[in-house]
Amino acid sequence: MSEGQPAKSGVDDLITAGEREPGAIAVNDFICMTRDISNSYLVLTDKGNVLINAGASYAAPRKQAAYQTFSAAPIVAAIVTQSHPDHYGGLKTLLPEGAALITSARYPSGMAERQALANFYAPRTNKLWHGVVGDKMDRPATKPKAEIAPTVLVEDHHAFTLGGRRFEIIALPGGETLDGIGVWLPDHKVAFIGNLLGPAYLNVPNLNTLRGDRPRCPQRYIDSVSRIRALEPELLITGHGDPIHGAASIRDDLNRMIEAMRSVRDQTMAGMAAGKDVWTLMREVRVPAEFSLAEAFGKTAWNVRSIWEQLAGWFHYDSTTSLYPVPRSEVSQDLAEVAGGAGNLAARAQALLDQGKPVHALHLIDIALDADPGHAAARSVKRAAHQYLLDHRGTANLNESMWLKSELKILDAGDGA
């Protein structure tokens, strides 16, 4: 791992770092950052300053005060690296009227899509992230305000010079969004890449997030990371955590992430060609040891499934029932009756859990609780299975642990699941 990078597994620490370190942090003599759910950066020039990402809206007043301590010069332009609220949320506060806003040409459509689906995404995001971010997501001030219209839309590449400092904007559609862009300062060999690599450095990225979003294409990821590698940056600045220094170590790290993704993609495709189903491949595909990455946020098994379904679609050729809008839950009552009731299913699930098979147990418990949502024994086994998963598998990966903890909280509250 490169010098100065936080521990791989501390994704939740990165996301909440702004609460512990609220001020402006000097990266060098002309760049500073403020920590947030996603970091924000200020680049100084002799003709005014350039903001790179604005962080979440609730933290914008803190950022504004922090940046004033680093430079009293006005912000004359902002660059937003993707259309997620933790990147653009503070614009209304931080960007003065008349200042330029530079985004990807795909940014307006990305914003429109997310706003149209806000009522779909919000409860999913809240369930998953509330345990880490807390009530900030619930306060009106944290909800995205009407966006500021971009003044410069970048298709693939755009360059400008301000106060003697050259900025190059490059498209990076292989990251968390199709409208991802990066900022390259060629005279200083500094690359700002936003969340191209996901929220944590040297970690497996999520090709499909648990909260829901467009699936991310592995080849676009490889191409975008390769584009940054070809620049040979000496300072790499990401969306979370500390900047990474050193051209040689950055090159090696980026190569490792490229080859890890390439290997998972190629192994998945080879397995599909050999006739293996997605569940088998999720169990079998592994990143080669020389390219191993932490799984603090994404997981290789999840990426295998994402690749499989991007290439083959939603129909797995396993059951005629997939072709029709009748989910298994609609026959759970019948299955429970055949099994002698929800109690028998709960007892069998407990036996599976005792054998160290919590997921097998949950398959049966889902049927039992579909048939009888209030069944006490079934709910007890469901809680025990989730606790088992959390204790034995779920603490290393933030997404997995957040989901398991949210399910446990619902069960403890007695509200169903």
CATH superfamily of the largest domain: Metallo-beta-lactamase domain
Helical proportion, percent range: 40-55%
Coarse shape: elongated
Q: Low-confidence stretches at least 5 residues in length (pLDDT < 50)?
A: 1-9, 138-145
Instruction: Summarize the helix and strand pattern as letters.
Output: HHEEEEHEHHEHHEEEEEHEEHHHHHHHH
State the major sheet: 7 strands, mixed
- Write down the domain tally: 2
Specify the CATH class of the largest domain. Answer: Alpha Beta
CATH architecture of the largest domain: 4-Layer Sandwich
Strand runs, count: 13
Radius of gyration, in Å, reads 23 Å
Question: Number of helical runs?
Answer: 16
- Secondary structural class: alpha/beta
Q: Compute the average pLDDT.
A: 91
User: In angstroms, what separates the terminal alpha carbons?
Assistant: 40 Å
CATH topology of the largest domain: Metallo-beta-lactamase, Chain A
| Beta-strand share of residues | 5-15%
> Could you give the order of strands across the largest sheet?
1-2-3-4-5-6-7
Description:
This protein is an alpha/beta fold. It folds into 2 domains: 11-260, Metallo-beta-lactamase domain (Metallo-beta-lactamase, Chain A), CATH 3.60.15; 320-413, Alpha Horseshoe (Serine Threonine Protein Phosphatase 5, Tetratricopeptide repeat), CATH 1.25.40.880. Helices cover 44% and strands 13% of the residues. The protein has helices at residues 11-15, 17-20, 60-70, 85-88, 91-94, 107-116, 118-133, 218-231, 247-273, 278-284, 300-312, 332-338, 342-354, 358-371, 376-392, 398-413; strands at 25-26, 31-34, 40-43, 49-52, 75-79, 100-104, 152-154, 157-162, 165-171, 181-185, 190-194, 235-238, 244-245. The strands form 2 sheets. A 7-stranded mixed sheet has the order 1-2-3-4-5-6-7, with helices on one face. Strands 8-9-10-11-12-13 form a 6-stranded mixed sheet, covered by helices on one side. It is elongated, with a radius of gyration of 23 Å. The model is unreliable at 1-9 and 138-145 (pLDDT under 50).
